[in-house]
Amino acid sequence: MSGTLHSHDLALLGPEERARFSAFRDGVRGARYAAVHAAVRRLLSGLLGCGAGDIRFGRHTCPGCGRTSHGRPYIRVPRTSLELSLSRSGPYWLCAVADGIRVGADIEMLRPVNAERLTRLTGAVLTGGERSYMAEVPAERLPAEFIRCWTRKEAVTKASGIGIEAAMGRLDVQPERSRALVRHAVGGCPADTWTVQNLPTGPDHFAAVAFPA
After folding, report:
1. What is the DSSP secondary-structure string of 61-100?
2. What is the pTM of this model?
3. Distances (CA, A) of 156 to 145, 200, 209
């Protein structure tokens, strides 16, 4: 996705999205934000049978902290049973939509990580089983495999609604499997077992989606 801002994208955004767009100091990042949210609105308008600019979004309360700033997003207007999850990373974006079931999606662009930082991150957010998996990975693949683990964890926690409040170090997403059943229980969420699976991507990013098993 390019970093060029188009006025027809900006015109579709709601008040909160425009406020978020205005907060970007980096013009490229701001343009990408506007383009992604406009594209999602256009896609949803075909499913909802309404104008792209008429859609209004909200956020559920986070079951971890009780705030709505990072709660699970939902379509407030028009009323619908569709659930959605949106993720952005650099020039890439991913939106998952499901009818009547929770869904979580995450996409992450690969970035350089030095060995010391990678060791700290691995100890902080990976389970014992995931660290055992990483121990068998060639050194040159360690950053990519860490991102694969992280992407899968993000997808699951976005689906459950707890997001960044989750204890990532206790959530085992079985990175050795392309598709796996993952235990993850959150208060107020009806599901406690999730299917998480990798999505096909290019060589410089990873993506995953999660939904109730």
Report:
1. PPTTT--SSSSPEEEEES--SEEEEEEEETTEEEEEEEES
2. 0.93
3. 17, 17, 8
